[in-house]
Amino acid sequence: MPEYTSLRIEPDATHPRIARLLLNRPERLNAITDATPREIRQAVEWAENEDAIHVIIVEGAGKGFCGGYDLSAYAERHIEHPCQQEKQPWAPLEDYAAMKRNTDDFMALWRCRKPTIAKVHGAAVAGGTDIALCCDLMTVAQDARIGYMPTRVWGCPTTAMWTFRLGPMRAKQLMFTGDVISGQQAADWGLATLAAPPAELDAETLKLAVRIAGVPRSHLAMHKLVVNQIMETAGLAQAQTLATVFDGITRHNPEGLWFRRYAQTHGFKAAVEWRDSGRPIPEGDEARAQIEAMPPPAER
Q1: CA 254 to each of CA 34, 81, 96, 165: distance values in angstroms, whole numbers, following the listed order
Q2: Quick one: pLDDT band at residue 89, thresholds 50, 70, 90?
Q3: Which of 260, 253, 250, 258 is closest to 292 using CA atoms?
Q4: In 3-state terms, what secondary structure has residue 81?
Q5: CA dihedral defined by 181, 32, 44, 178, rounded to 10 degrees?
Q6: pLDDT per residue as tens digits for the range 232-291
Q7: Is the pTM value of this prediction over 0.90?
Q8: Cis peptide leading into residue 157 (ω within 30°)
Q9: Which residues pair with 257 in a beta bridge?
Q10: I need a surface site. Which of 26, 161, 236, 243 has the fewest CB within 10 A?
C-alpha cells in the first residue's frame, strides 16, 4: 500500500472493490496540511489504477471528518506563506497559484473515473467541506456538523461546489451567514445522499458502496462523465477561478488582515469566537485602525 503523512488508502477488508481513503490526523481533527491536497490526489490516482477497485469511500479518523485547514500557525504567527503574505505589496498570483493547486488536487475526487463517497461524521467544516463536496456522493451522521464559517471573514470556498450541490438560494444562505447545519438538515436539503444514526453510518455507507461496486467500471465512468460535463457546461471551472481569487482577497483586505492581527494578539481561538458569534466584523477604516493598535507578537 502507498504511504502518506496525512492519510492512508487501502481496499476494504471485506469488499475488495471498495477503497477506503482515511484522513488520518485525528489528533488535529484531520486538519489539512500543505501535504494533504497532494496526497489526496496521489491516493485517488492509485485507486484509479487498481482495476479491482470500483468505488472510493473518503472518511476521517477519530472524532470527525475534517476540521478544515490547519490555520492556527498561519493566523497567530508572523510568517510568510504564499497564502498569507504580510509583505507589501501582496502578490495575488502567488496566492492564486498555491490555492488553485489545492483546489485542483481536491478535484481529483471529482475527476476520478470511479465514484467517490464522502462519509461524514463529527465535523466537516471550512476546507474540510471542499474535500467532502468534491466527492460524488455524501453520507452523513445525523448529528454531523457541516459548514464554511470563514465566509464571515478570512475565506471563500475555492472549490465553489456549494451552489452546484445546494442551488443558489441555500448556497447564499450558508455563505452569507457562515452557519453550520446538521447532517440531518444536510440530507433534508439535498446536500447529503443520506443521513443515518452515528452508529449506523458506516454500515449504510458500505451498503451504498457495495450496490455501486456491482456496476461495471466503464458504465460508472460514463455516467459520472455525463453529469460532470453538465456541471462544467454550467460554469464550474470559471466559478472556481473567481472563488480562488476572492479567497486570496478575503485574507489580505482590511477585514482579513484584522482577523489575522486579532488572532496574533489574542489567539486563534478568540478570533474564531468573534467571527462565529455574530458580532459585526470591523470593516474598512475601522479595521485599519484596530490593525494599527494591535502590533503582531514576535514569532514564537
Answers
A1: 25, 18, 18, 31
A2: confident
A3: 258
A4: strand
A5: 20
A6: 999 999 999 999 999 999 999 999 999 999 998 898 999 999 999 999 999 999 999 999
A7: yes
A8: no
A9: none
A10: 26
